Structure prediction request, 323 residues.
Amino acid sequence: MNTPFFQRTAGGILLLCCIFFNSVHAQSFRFVALGDMPYTLPGDFVRYERLIGKINSENPSFSIFVGDTKSGSTPCSDEYVQKISNYFNTFQKPLIYSIGDNEWTDCHRPQAGSYDPIERLDYIRSHQFSNKLSFGKQKLVLTRQGDVMPAFTTFVENSLWVKNDFLFVSIHLPGSNNNFGRNASSDEEYKKRNAANLAWIEYAFDQAQQKKYVGIIFAFQADMFYSPDQATSRSSGYRDTLELFSSLAGSTNLPILLIHGDSHRLKIDQPLLNNQKRTLENVYRLEVMGSDQVQAVEIEINPKEANPYGFHPLLIKENIQAD
Prediction:
């Protein structure tokens, strides 16, 4: 029996649409990670502008800045927050920002202006996270934690977005021990944000499973891996986070990428262990350059590969400092 023409046509269109949909989601794409800059002022402003120009010329899908928009010994002023926002908005493509310690937890230091860290955090949230949009000339609409978890509306800096079936998650995990252990005020702040962060990580893994995402990329500031004690010591502000990452990542085969700054040296490794102290082979860590190295890393994601993450340092010759 002949199939009516309109059915054949409709079926062909449906097939083409499915092929196009699948091919789009299987496409490779690139993004850039950077952080911990500019530190040495005012000289590093020129190097930073040069790096932003290079990133713009590479035309990535977006960029992620993993915290520390200045050194810990420069003033935490309102003017500087605005200056950094202006820089973020010179990126041609979206720029997503994860807050570091030098922006607020360390602002009590005399060289940083003897600010109240909690006041600085409130200011950053109200001025740099006042809506769901990323930075950059081209904006990206982000899903913020409070949009899907009403109990955590304070934590406007925690966000997620999806690109070609890869889930990207920004988490507020700063250095200086995650603001834990300095005084009673810092401990109270840490307690609330730590609960939000753990819930956000669990939510990300749940979403990846439910929606069958291909992989998860987490972006944050702190180097949680510089000492084994960070995963075990009761004085560690990262112990809960590392335990949760190890548990959830160990229960899935999804490729996980953790991107952070803080220690200022380029590193790519597999930092997490399971309960048997064996390396979790599906978890990769990228630590970006920073401080004296005003450079960045381009990450290419190829969904067709078992390890979909490829790394290419963006090195600007003029930014390399002579001895």
Summary: Confidence is low (pLDDT under 50) at residues 13-23. The chain has eight helices and twelve strands. The two ends are 81 Å apart (CA to CA). The longest strand covers residues 29-34.
